[in-house]
Amino acid sequence: MTFGKRLFDLFFASLLVLLLWPFIIALLVWLLIRQGRPVFYVAERMKGMGEPFALWKLRTMTEVDEDSGVSGGDKVNRITPTGAWLRSKRLDELPQLWNILRGDLSFVGPRPPLRQYVEQFPEIYSEVLKSRPGVTGLATLVYHKHETMLLARCKTREETDLVYARSCVPRKARLDLIYQRRRNVCYDFDLVFQTIGFLFHRR
């Protein structure tokens, strides 16, 4: 990560925390009343080859004893009504401001992958993870809707993993590598504003 990109992340993450902390506290209290504990969902993700980190999100699903893989149609019944609302606004990702401040994430970059896919596709992720993972990115903007549609059709965890590995991993990687070749602070601003515009349009 370049010095300019890290400075960009630190400045805007700190600014958002200062501006949004009353809203964040109110949201946490509301979630505690609506869903109970735990309020947060913490999962392992990878920021480099052999470099795991704890990704923080607001909990949007009911808890189970064992959970793995990406979210597909096999997990849709676990999404709570409150969780569905959080996901529609991407508010479940607010705690990732902490990950940005820690240096685990950038605002813009490839979405951080699960260990199982990094180990399954080392030749792909050794290139993709030369960019610091991000909260949003080119692949998120271009491919997210299609990925959601593909995975929503899956009925089992095994089917979800198969579809994600065969269809989503290589296509997202191509987009992530396009971003990697073009990345600069101006392009990051552009992708952030496109993300904000997408959220308002979807709303």
Automatic annotation (TrEMBL):
Keyword presence, Glycoprotein: no
Gene Ontology BP terms: polysaccharide biosynthetic process
InterPro entries: Bact_transf (IPR003362)
Coiled-coil residue spans: none
Keyword tags: Exopolysaccharide synthesis, Membrane, Transferase, Transmembrane, Transmembrane helix
Keyword Membrane: yes
Record-annotated membrane-spanning stretches: 12-33
Sequence ranges assigned to domain Bacterial sugar transferase in this UniProt record: 5-200
GO molecular-function terms, A-Z: phosphotransferase activity, for other substituted phosphate groups
Stated family: Belongs to the bacterial sugar transferase family.
Protein name in UniProt: Sugar transferase
Source organism phylogeny: Bacteria, Pseudomonadati, Pseudomonadota, Alphaproteobacteria, Rhodobacterales
